[in-house]
Design brief:
alpha/beta; elongated; cell division; binds uridine-diphosphate-N-acetylglucosamine; 4-stranded mixed sheet; UDP-n-acetylglucosamine1-carboxyvinyl-transferase, Chain; 2 domains; EC 2.5.1.7; 490 residues; binds phosphoenolpyruvate; single chain; 17 helices
């Protein structure tokens, strides 16, 4: 376990380079499973905990996968298993993205229910609805989802009830090798969807319309491994922009793409932050006081939920009152309690948080309750008076490459310390309880503190064999209901 210690008050200046996007590289690595010939070489791969984890998942399926100097090499010509086991999948949401490729390539997939940040119920009903429309039979039980097809998947017309990023990606990958044409209506439009479509098309797929609400995929016979460079991480870039702004700094965020960050840039400019387009990045300058603004998270091209907590950190020290409304995930305000320990003044009312600005933040011991909450606490700590100690850093390691080194290079007084403890903080317990409430019927639960320490050796995935066809998987309506939980505020 690690903690990050920040002594606030340093104004950031200099250049910081953005790494490849976590949310692009994860589906792209999963899509590599679709190639039955040739090696894929993925460039600008950020070596994050999530990437290491999906590398293990892909390796456990029999593909050859290795990493060197920000490049991932994948040869999926021989797959030996269609099962992604609990020990690997529980750690992150995106591991469920191997379901579509496995189903399309092998006609079978058995995947544990996915983990990820405890920011909401995060059902997967839209993924399953898509697979079923393409002719897959889905069974649920013992915390696993098993999908099977009789022959090839069939192209279908699929309307997503919510514009889910993961469901759009999973269905797009499955449809790439299906027979006939698939349309995804109300598809997610995120830049990571476009990146995945570009990769699939380079592999030989026929995907059109990615980046719009209607994606059309004409199935092809086979796909091959190719080289591809992952887009820069817009959330990492946004986090450094906020870090610069909160310290009244002057920072060049190299690699940041303004189009991908349009709503974040607009809101920051409304607050008085200067953001200028450079040759290959964004130049950020801020002079306090900054003005308050209201923010509402929405699917792309709206304000990203993954930037909500970092924005809230900045609003705490800006002038006036702001309202932040979270519409994507129903439990994404867990950082508010942690901000209160830094003396932030925030009141939560349903889906909105009301932030009283101009608060002098004071350092304290806090805990990252999820990935972006951890990043937001680091931003707040950069402005707080005195020392802030942030635990729960394993969340941050899922999404940020070398965050302490990058911020230190901009002049931040920040360091990382390894700690050996079995203590579970109240915040970690709360985060674990959320996962528990959501999944107690479906998957066993480990508290994050225990989970982070127990690097258990994953069991060997079963080789493909006839007995995988056993009737031990019965559709369990109760579990299905759990998977389809509606947000409490909907
Ligand atoms: C690895 C990755 O790319 N993660 C991103 C992805 O997560 P992820 O793909 O999990 O997020 P989704 O877009 O699927 O979720 C959006 C909303 O749809 C709901 N939903 C989703 C699927 C489903 O089958 N049924 C359903 O109801 C979710 O509960 C949520 O309320 O998009 C989120 C929203 O931009 C980001 O915060 C995550 O960083
Ligand atoms: C919520 C996030 O990630 P995931 O979907 O992998 O949990 C995130 O990147 O902020």
């Amino acid at each position: 376990m690690s903690k990050i210690i920040v002594r606030g008050g340093q104004r950031l200046s200099g250049t910081v380079k953005v790494s490849g996007a976590k949310n692009s590289v994860l589906p792209i690595l999963a899509a590599s499973l679709l190639a039955n010939e040739g090696e894929s070489v993925i460039h600008d791969v950020p070596l994050l905990d999530d990437v290491i984890n999906i590398q293990k998942v892909i390796g456990s399926l029999g593909a050859k996968i290795s990493y060197k100097s920000e490049m991932m090499y994948i040869d999926a010509s021989q797959l030996t298993s269609f099962e992604a086991p609990y020990d690997l999948v529980r750690k992150m949401r995106a591991s469920f993205l191997v379901m579509g490729p496995l189903l399309a390539r092998l006609g079978s997939a058995r995947i544990s229910l996915p983990g990820g940040c405890a920011i909401g119920t995060r059902p997967i009903d839209q993924h399953l609805k898509g697979f079923e429309a393409m002719g897959a039979e889905i069974n649920l039980g013992q915390g696993y989802i098993e999908a099977k097809t009789n022959g090839k998947l069939q192209g279908a017309k699929i309307y997503l009830d919510v514009a889910s990023v993961g469901a759009t990606e999973n269905i797009m990958m499955a449809a790439a090798l299906a027979e006939g044409t698939t349309t995804i209506e109300n598809a997610a439009k995120e830049p990571e969807i476009v990146d995945l479509a570009n990769y699939l098309n380079a592999m030989g797929a026929k995907v059109r319309g990615a980046g719009t609400g209607m994606i059309r995929i004409e199935g092809v016979e086979s796909l091959r491994g190719v080289a591809h460079t992952v887009i820069p991480d817009r959330v990492e870039a946004g986090t450094y922009i906020i870090a610069a702004a909160i310290t009244g700094g002057d920072v060049y965020v190299e690699g940041a793409i303004s189009d991908h960050l349009a709503p974040v840039i607009s809101k920051l400019q409304e607050m008085g932050v200067e953001i200028e387009e450079g040759d290959n990045g964004l130049h950020v300058r801020a002079n306090h006081p900054l003005k308050s603004v209201d923010v509402k998270t929405l699917p792309y091209p709206g304000f990203p939920t993954d930037m909500q907590s970092q924005m809230m950190a900045l609003l705490m020290v800006s002038e006036g009152t702001s309202i932040v409304t979270e519409t994507v995930f129903e439990n994404r305000f867990m950082h508010v309690e942690e901000f209160a320990k830094l003396q932030g003044q925030i009141k939560v009312e349903g889906r909105s948080a009301i932030i009283s600005g101009n608060t002098p933040l004071v350092g304290a011991k806090v805990c990252a309750t999820d990935l972006r909450a951890g990043a937001a606490l680091i931003c707040a700590a950069l402005k707080a008076e005195g020392e802030t100690e942030i635990s729960g850093i394993y969340h941050v390691d899922r999404g940020y490459v070398n965050i302490t080194e990058k911020l230190a290079s901009l002049g931040a007084n920040i360091k990382r310390e390894e700690v050996i403890t079995t203590e579970v903080t109240a915040a970690e317990e709360a985060a674990a309880n959320v996962i528990k409430e959501i999944t107690e019927e479906a998957v066993p639960v480990l508290t994050p503190a225990v989970a982070a320490q127990s690097e258990s050796v994953p069991p060997l995935a079963p080789a493909m064999s006839a007995d995988s066809d056993s009737g031990s998987f019965k559709r369990d309506k109760d579990v299905a209901a759990v998977l389809n939980v509606q947000p409490t505020w909907a």
